Amino acid sequence: MSLPPHYRPTEIEPYMSQQQVDYFREKLIKWREELQRETVETLHHMQEESINEPDVNDRASTETDRSFELRTRDRERKLVLKINQALERIEKGTYGYCEETGVPIGVARLEARPIATLCLEAQELHERLEKTYREDQD
Prior knowledge:
The protein has helices at 18-48, 56-92, 107-112, 120-137. By secondary structure, the protein is mainly α. It has a single domain (18-137), classed as Four Helix Bundle (Hemerythrin (Met), subunit A), CATH 1.20.120.910. It starts with 17 loop residues before the first helix and ends with a helix. The mean pLDDT is 87.
């Protein structure tokens, strides 16, 4: 199905209509492609960059930059996994519904965080329980 230009899902149309599903699928695929492109660019940049800096400070700076880039790419790798999981949920027909309660996550939340698996209420409860658990550990 081809989406109309400038289409944005709204709360007034049927939830997870084919048009909304296609919109979120396309959004997730574009996001994944962008992340993968950035990873390839980083790898090329790191391969081209000289490791043999004569100055100790320059070498330390280069290593710090590389470490930061690698941490960023690792976070993005994990994000790509979550995007793939969201695409699997689209194929299964469960995308857009809370994994804990089964209620709709909501268009606005999915627009802001297309990989969301919990509705806002379940997410807030999860975060409160995490905070309580952390405080108990202190």
